[in-house]
Inverse folding.
């Protein structure tokens, strides 16, 4: 019988071999996202201590840093971490994953999972994220959602759902009527 955790881990590490392509082709995030983070924090991102979990090649890490946040990238994959080090050489980076964060209690004002929460075990990752947050801190998870009103995007969504099953939405497939596909996660 397949082990979902082993399968998820195997798929997650597959990105390491293609980290340069991931960095080149993965879309970034709109300014409105960072404005929403500032609203949730009740202050600008400048000076905020951020733990970017599953930082990958550093897409969100770079955008948060550009807004003045003090970002610590946490990344389990060697290939992704190497790409992050190459493109953001001054960014602090620790190897680890969201299920067992190598960070002190209350170390962050903001904990982010940009396109990475679906690679964790939520029963382990959520308590870890809350442990690392300072009192009153903010946990933010986000991902891109495909616009299936375009035929080619809908076809890709169908292929993702066929391959990944219910997890397809976490890989970009829009699932109409599914709450996490139709609204921004809290």
């Amino acid at each position: 019988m397949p082990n979902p955790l082993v399968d998820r881990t195997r798929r997650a590490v597959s990105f390491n071999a293609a980290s340069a392509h991931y960095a080149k082709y993965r879309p970034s995030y709109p300014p409105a996202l960072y404005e929403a983070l500032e609203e949730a924090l009740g202050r600008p991102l400048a000076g905020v201590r951020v733990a970017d979990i599953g930082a990958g090649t550093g897409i969100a890490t770079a955008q948060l840093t550009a807004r003045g946040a003090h970002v610590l990238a946490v990344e389990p994959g060697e290939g992704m971490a190497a790409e992050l080090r190459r493109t953001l050489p001054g960014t602090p980076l620790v190897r680890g994953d969201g299920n067992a964060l190598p960070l002190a209690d209350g170390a962050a004002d903001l904990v982010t999972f940009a396109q990475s929460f679906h690679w964790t075990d939520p029963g382990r990752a959520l308590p870890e994220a809350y442990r690392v947050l300072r009192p009153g801190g903010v946990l933010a998870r986000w991902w891109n959602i495909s616009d299936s009103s375009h035929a080619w995007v809908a076809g890709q969504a169908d292929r993702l759902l066929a391959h990944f099953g219910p997890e397809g939405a976490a890989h970009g497939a829009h699932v109409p009527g599914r709450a996490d596909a139709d609204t921004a996660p809290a």
